[in-house]
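Reagents: none. Just compute today. DUF523 domain-containing protein.
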Amino acid sequence: MPQKILFSACLAGFKVRYNGSDKPLVNATLQRWQREGRLVVCCPELAAGFSTPRPSAEITPAANGASVLAQQARVMEAGGGDVTDSYLLGAHLALETARRHGCRFALLTDGSPSCGSQFIYDGSFSGQTKPGSGVTAELLRRHGIEVFSDRQLTALIARIEATERS
Ligand code: SF4
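Predicted 3D structure written out:
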């Protein structure tokens, strides 16, 4: 059965990133999936009501290591605003979208406090990264959706082809 993939809107060429840019991911298989209607394009931050451009935000870690989903770590804007609740809303809306379309897989932009799945920025707004996940990627994984970053497209294609063969 053809699989559907939740897909970060900025990877699809929509200029929805915090700084008004996109991050297009061009690949023949992705283009075919798009023609076949298998890419479910989603921007959790716009879904939560943010506009573009918007202040950059990073996850400030909790002292006990607990996540944003546990309401311990916070998502903070560079200017000091606490936007945790909006990021949680965006994550839940993305999960709802994935479920509505039957997505078992997601391909999301790495580094984002929403979509990051391999690394995120460390909360110091100094350009430092660390291994970790954004709020949306973590919520999707907790609900059984396999999340791949934009740097893992080859692995995602192989995973989906294997799934569709079985
Ligand atoms: Fe792209 Fe995700 Fe950020 Fe939206 S929230 S701009 S889809 S990385």
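The chain has a mean pLDDT of 97.
Action item: order primers for follow-up constructs.
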